[in-house]
Amino acid sequence: MNPAAPALRFRSLACTPIVVPLRFPLGTSAATVTAAPLLLLDVQSEEGVVGRAYAFAYRPSGARAMAEVLADAAQLIAGDPMAPAAVAAKLQRRMTLIGVTGVVRMALSLLDMALWDALAVAAGRPLAALLGGAPQPVPAYNSSGLGLMAPAAAADEALKLLEGGFKTVKLRLGYASVGEDIERVRAVRNVLPADIQLLVDYNQGLSTAESLARGRALQAEGVAWLEEPTRHDDLDGYAQIARELALPVQLGENFNGPLAMQQALAARACDLVMPDVSRIGGVTGWMQAAGIAAAYGVPMSSHLMPEISAHLMTATPTAHLVEYVDWLDPVLDQPCRVVEGCVVVPDTPGTGLAWDAAAVKRFRLG
Q1: Do residues 344 and 337 lie in contact, with contact meaning Cβ atoms separated by under 8 Å?
Q2: According to the model, what pLDDT value does residue 3 have?
Q3: What span, in angstroms and rounded, lies between the C-alpha atoms of 317 and 298?
Q4: What CA–CA distances, in Å, run from 176 to 183, 211, 225?
Q5: Helix, strand or coil for residue 16?
Q6: Are 232 and 204 in contact (CB under 8 A)?
Q7: Share of the chain above pLDDT 70, in %
């Protein structure tokens, strides 16, 4: 960090829950998502520096619950130095009895992201640079659409997702039969140029046995990874799947902190990892997880929130792909830029997040 950057002390925070309609409704094996509940966070230092971050809340109630946890956290760290690792340790201790998982983990991760943004703003440097990376384009895949739908509709939407020069797109599966899954894969694969990678995601919709059966069928269909076929915490099941399939197994969006990643890798439960910055422990947890992935030599991708995740990927030794979604675009002054299939990390202080106040007001959750 720039040694000339002022030391910051925490003053206050403001949470704004919003719900933004999706450009591409997203049908998964769990539910159909037509709007994204998000929680925007602004952290204010005593010195007047503002740090911003956001998280996908999954449900409107999730955004409200995180806001309540953050209000509690703000009281606990009032006047403290805005030192993310120290703040994380203090809040972890104070919230141990309620459990630092789920909504609590996400709230504390969100706070950590905003603190890091404030520090980078104060230093006058992009977050990527503050972490030892550099503002640069980061390879990404388009995950904004391709939910469960008819084969012809999937083929049509797949072509739309190539806008921006993407070389990789993701398709959700989990139909009633393996035949229906294969039908969708072939419909999409047939319209995509040969150099485009196709990823598939089951959103934890299968049993271990069914994961193996469908995984074996998919191995001949030209897909690049098999994501979360079964319950995310069944490490024994994942170890069997990873061992028996040639198709790389992707896991990690539900890792609760870096220790969960270490346990999954120690169990040989996956070939690839993709932590979510709002579940892994924010920027602080991400960097710890990146070290673990590097120690195991495992490629590490991101889950959602590309505006923040791309900065982190520049400082990740085994960086693979950023998951791109356009969900935050409607409320940003400067939406995330994609050029030739890469998310462009801006050369501006912090993460570069700045809210469009009128749009935030329009989408605010009542």
Answers
A1: yes
A2: 44
A3: 10
A4: 12, 13, 21
A5: strand
A6: yes
A7: 98
The CA-to-CA distance between both ends of the chain, in Å, stands at: 39
Residues 6+ apart with CB under 8 A from 264: 235, 238, 251, 252, 255, 270, 273
Q: What is the DSSP letter of 345?
A: P
Per-residue CA distances from 140 to 5, 55, 196, 261, 274 (Å): 32, 19, 12, 22, 13
- Dihedral sign for Cα atoms in the order 259, 265, 266, 268: positive
Angle at 148 between CA 239 and CA 215, to 5 degrees: 25
Q: Measured between alpha carbons, how far is 269 from 261 in angstroms, rounded to an integer?
A: 10
58 contacts: CB under 8 Å, gap ≥ 6? 37
Tell whether pTM > 0.85: yes
pLDDT digits (tens, 9 = 90+) for 40-79: 999 999 999 999 999 999 999 999 999 999 999 999 999 9
Structure tokens at 325: 């979604």
Residue 331 Cα distances to 42, 154, 361, angstroms: 14, 28, 9
| Contacting residues for 111 by C-beta, under 8 A, at least 6 apart | 13, 41, 43, 53, 70, 73, 87, 91, 282
CB 151, CB 183: distance < 8 Å: yes
- Is the pLDDT score of 349 beyond 90? yes
pLDDT for res 75: 98
pLDDT of 4 over the 60 cut: no
Residue with tokens 């462009």: 344
User: H or E element: which one contains 238?
Assistant: helix 235-244
The CA–CA distances, whole Å, from 153 to 145, 150, 336, 339 equal 11, 5, 26, 26
Q: How far apart are CA 165 and CA 340, in angstroms?
A: 4
pLDDT tens sequence across 190-223 = 999 999 999 999 999 999 999 999 999 999 999 9
- Contact, 115 vs 351, CB < 8 A? no
